[in-house]
Amino acid sequence: MAPVDPHSYTESTHPLTTNISLSLYFDFSTSTIHAAALLSLPTPHSGDLSLDTRSLTIRQVLDPQTLAPIQFSLSSDTDPIKGCLLTVSLSDQSSLLLVFSTSPDSSALQWLSPPQTFNKTHPFVYTQCQSIHARSVFPCQDTPAARVCYKALINIPHQLSAVMAAQHVDRRPPIAGETKMIGGESFDFDYESLWCTEGRIVEEFEMNQPVPPYLFAFAVGELGSREVGPRTKVYAESVPAVLDAAAQEFAGTEELIRQGERLFGEYDWERFDLLVLPPSFPYGGMENPRMVFLTPTVIKGDASGAQVVAHELAHSWTGNLITNKNNEHFWLNEGFTTYAERRIVEVVQGEDRAGLNIGIGWRGLNEEMERFKDNMEFTKLKTNQEGVDPDAVYSEVPYEKGFQFLWRIERQIGRPAFDEFLKKYIATFKFKSIDTETFLDFLKTNVPGIEKQVDLELWTEGIGIPPDAYEPVSNIYTKIVSLANEFKLGKIPREEEVADWQGQEWELYLENLPKSVEASQVVALDARYRLAESKDYEVKVAFLQLAISCNCRDYYGEVEKTLKEVGRMKYLRPLYRALVQGTGKDEEKILAKRVFGEARDCYHPIARGVVESIFAKHL
Ligand code: BES
Ligand code: ZN
């Protein structure tokens, strides 16, 4: 039997689940969800069915019609990447009911105690399932090759509310007996009375469009919202100042959606709401359908908030409609989305800003070549991920090399033809999960002769950056890069040269500075422009990274503070890496370990794992 995905136990000969019905009882006192999941298959199946799980206690597996037990076994050893294999033995059954509990260290879930929230009165919990963490919330075929519709009943204390990447159906008191049909009776404790405890409320959701499991998402807490457009509300912890700032930052969202529709076809998901998470959210944004999740660090009153929203919005077409079949083809999600994001940014913010983003990406892509110089597999677009943890090899390559590839094709055939091609590609493969070959076949069929003009194999299977990749040309980009090069000669930009710089200009400048410069020069730059204290984390982190690589200890206090106040991995990774990589950095290594020890509990489990893998590599 062949697996369909190197990161999943799903077997190619087994039917793929089409519908899941979940009831989730949130116990904040133990950071546990007690749950039942009804999985439906398209046809009756006899024999084994393999499911992915991680950190789950499986209590029972039942036939939902008869409530007769179904035999199951949970592998005794846990694969560090895939988790535990749950095998259930079916006999001509097309549905099964799983009764289970999550554990406090389920990797998708971050539980925040009241003191860890802004208002400090109520707890908060949220998911991050991409790439392979949905299995730590419920047993499933956790591969994007599978697409499911789902329903969820979320049972929480009435002071809290829930949001999901799904349609909200109802908020109402628990109903006695409603869990029976989905297995409530069969818990080994009195689940029924737990479900109906005084002071609980049930939020009901439905996702009627088939989505890959990594797009399953919820958040529960003391939430508030503001309306910012005809199909957009912004949600966040109920703090008026946070909600107001978010509403202002994202006021232009409807315009982004309209531009997206013009370029890629109708927006298919009805709502496009935004959820601003606590600072520990491990990503900049996550494209959960109908409800994008965002880090609060994007709220800073400049163009970059809209850029992240444009990116997550673009996933509505590339990623959520057309999905990579498994993580080896992740560039199909992120490369297309980065291309689409920049097309939207170009219309809304102008060519200069889009060019600046391309330039920042180009710099990032070149740095990744350095990072992977001993492991060139991960400089490819299509990668072999057998035995590889997607979180450990997450990089800008699928984003920026993917972008470069599509940009190359656009240059070859011209924008109008490429736009038409993109629309057709989306219309053809929507609600499907595809691989690189499927894309290339479609490209060759629809753009005859393209393989003679662009080396498609080199782009998708080759290592490094192909010679026909392109550094952006624009006045502002060229100016910033040459100012950065002059830093070597001791030149710090003059006030009038940087007068209209926003965060992204500084980011590009700092990232293009030579890696080893005199500590005194770093201090001089900061004395003039106060970069270490910037409210913009992109700028602050780029500066602190430079300071660490120049052993400029004056800034270690600020490094520690930063590592303790945000959990976005885009900032944690370079700072921890700069501290621990290289020889003769004992003081930095001790600092990194101490800070991680103190900050660990505030990080999302995925971020904890990523920092630990950086330590494992360098310490
Ligand atoms: N889908 C990604 C986030 C992700 C990738 C989560 C892989 C888990 C595994 C999201 O769309 C993304 O790319 N976010 C970026 C935003 C940026 C490119 C504008 C981020 O978080 O930095
Ligand atoms: Zn993305």
State the helical fraction.
Answer: 25-40%
Gross morphology is globular
What would you call the structural class?
A: alpha+beta
The mean pLDDT is 95
Pfam families: Leuk-A4-hydro_C (PF09127), Peptidase_M1 (PF01433), Peptidase_M1_N (PF17900)
GO molecular function, one term: epoxide hydrolase activity
GO biological process, one term: proteolysis
Main location: cytoplasm
Brief write-up:
The protein is built from 20 helices and 19 strands.
Features:
binds zinc ion; five-stranded mixed sheet; 21% strand; globular; eight-stranded mixed sheet; 619 residues; 19 strands
Write the layout of secondary structure elements.
Elements: E1 19-27, E2 32-53, E3 57-62, E4 72-74, E5 84-101, E6 109-112, E7 124-127, E8 148-157, E9 161-164, E10 167-172, H1 191-195, E11 200-211, E12 218-221, E13 223-229, E14 232-237, H2 240-249, H3 253-264, E15 273-276, E16 285-286, E17 291-294, H4 303-314, E18 322-324, H5 330-349, H6 351-371, H7 397-413, H8 415-429, E19 432-434, H9 436-446, H10 450-453, H11 456-461, H12 475-486, H13 495-498, H14 503-511, H15 519-529, H16 537-549, H17 556-565, H18 569-580, H19 586-599, H20 605-618
Parallel strand pairs: 1-8, 14-15, 15-17, 18-19
Antiparallel strand pairs: 1-2, 2-5, 3-5, 4-5, 6-7, 7-12, 8-11, 9-12, 10-11, 13-14, 16-17
Helix pairs in contact: 3-4, 3-5, 4-5, 5-6, 5-7, 6-7, 6-14, 7-8, 12-14, 14-16, 16-18, 17-19, 18-20
The structure holds ligand BES and zinc ion.
Zinc ion (ZN) is lined by residues 311, 315, 334, 337.
Subcellular location: Cytoplasm
Keywords: Cytoplasm, Hydrolase, Metal-binding, Metalloprotease, Protease, Zinc
GO molecular function: epoxide hydrolase activity; metallopeptidase activity; zinc ion binding
